[in-house]
Amino acid sequence: MTRKICTVCARGGSKGVKDKNLRELLGKPLIAHTLAHAFESGIFDDVAVSSDSPAILAVAAQCGVRHLVERPAALATDTAAKVPAIRHCVETIEGRLGLRFDVCVDLDATAPLRTPDDVRNSVALLKARGASNLFSVVLARRSPYFNLVEVDESGIARLSKKLQHPVVRRQDAPLCYDMNASIYVWQRDALDVADTVFLGTTAVYVMDHRSAFDIDDEVDLRIVELLLKERA
Fold first, then answer.
1. CA nearest neighbour of 100 among 199, 5, 195
2. Is residue 162 part of a domain?
3. CA angle 146-150-151, nearest 5°?
4. DSSP for residue 201
5. Is residue 99 helix, strand or coil?
6. Count of domains observed in the chain
7. Which range of residues forms the domain containing residue 58?
8. Calpha distance 203→227 (Å, rounded)
9. The whole model's pTM is what?
10. Is 146 domain-assigned?
11. Selection from 100, 111, 116, 109 nearest residue 45 by Cα
12. Sign of torsion, CA 175 178 182 188?
């Protein structure tokens, strides 16, 4: 049997939106939407929440999460990478339960526009592709080959990437994707050694373009709330 764990790593601090993970969205805290996706997917043996915030951990418990992990301060700063926090959470629960998981899925609390089907399908894709890990994306609205530019030291604007034969229509450019910070899936052994989400056999799970928004500021919060209302 393949044992699967879902982690939700949610810091207490936030610069763009104060107490972001606890902000009410359609009548419940933001993090509760993601926890619902984890439970409703029906594929996890265990669900865990990692946070430096007692308030977030309390809300997680109210949502039915049994595994609560106090995140060390060093893993909860504005500059701390997320992969070590995921690994710490998984290792903590493994230590408590005396077992090792096979697949680890992290769902970001700031991206509530996924669905339980997205969670199930991303895990199935990891197995089908034989990938070490995958993360979710949406088709990019801007292309580095067509209308994404960089400005050099002299102030001259240039396309970010060049093709041997330049394209005159965005549709003719190579497909590019935006990471939408929603779903991350790992083979357990890959999580052990990863310092980044980009590994030798990393795959992507493509989501609907309406899932492009994660919440970094108040405008994002309003957009996400509108899209969730339309879905309800």
1. 5
2. no
3. 135
4. T
5. coil
6. 1
7. 4-140+176-231
8. 27
9. 0.93
10. no
11. 100
12. positive
